Amino acid sequence: MKQKKTSYESRKFFLFLIDKSGIDFDFYKISKIILNIALSIISVFTTYLLIQFMLNKTFVSDALLILLVLWSLGLLLIFGVAWAIFFIYIDLKIYKRQREVELVFPDFLQLAAANINAGLPIDRALWYAIRPKFGVLAKEMELVAKSTMVGEKLDKALIQFSERYDSPNIKRALNLLLVGLESGGEIGDLLTRIAINMRETEIIKKEMASNVMTYVIFILFATLGAAPFLFALTSELIVIMNSIFSNINISEGGSFGGIGGMLTSGNSISIVDYQIFAIVSVIISSVFSAIIISVIQKGNAKEAFKKIPLYVLIGVTNYFVSYNLLHLMLGGFFK
Q: Which of 88, 94, 120, 331 is the most core-located residue (most Cβ within 10 A)?
């Protein structure tokens, strides 16, 4: 049976994630900020409910029960959602740093290979290959170089560096480097081949993404074009049907059967309710289309978070534009 993590282990894991993301945060400070946010939201809801209770003259017992549920379950829910959003943000920062390291890692390896071929030992070759343009990787390799200067073994420092990033490419490259160091091979040539292999891998990924462009276009057309238009068409049809049946007078003793009777009995669909349903459906389909496209093109769903706001904006805008155009074209015929 898996043992539950202690508070010390949970805090240590949290600090490890914060360190990987490159953000300078304190565990207790973040906890306090999130708790204050949750309390602020609950306070706003409480103020709103108290105003409603006074206007509607709600019983004190009912009001107290609602407020008790709000300050217990509601506070826990908001607190948990705030933590979840924070960890999603941390995860995205970690992934962004990982991608930055992966993109410049081949250039760094080639510079290190040139230094080794010039006669420098591996630790100094890595140190002199550091350039400010490498950004995150430059800081990481500075930590590796400083660790070796204080007496830590190079292989251990490189392993610690690879564990900070969940990147198969970086782990594979460093494993090959460590094997080369143990076997005593030509490290300069090995680093050059590793750099070339990493660049070829990136090129293959881009070629695969271009080969599936047809699927991407189909998904975008279906979710951001066709779906909002069909929802807009249905919304306009509901307006037209409500307008038609509202002008029909039924004499006493007479009635419509089937669908006609249901539409004229006051149970017709509200256009406001349907528009809420349509907008929510467009937003959900836009989010999932961004995730699917990111998986197809990049092989990782985390890339979708940059596209989700744009896709949602396009989908909702297409819905309202289509609805207004259809209302202008069709609405005049059924007034």
A: 94
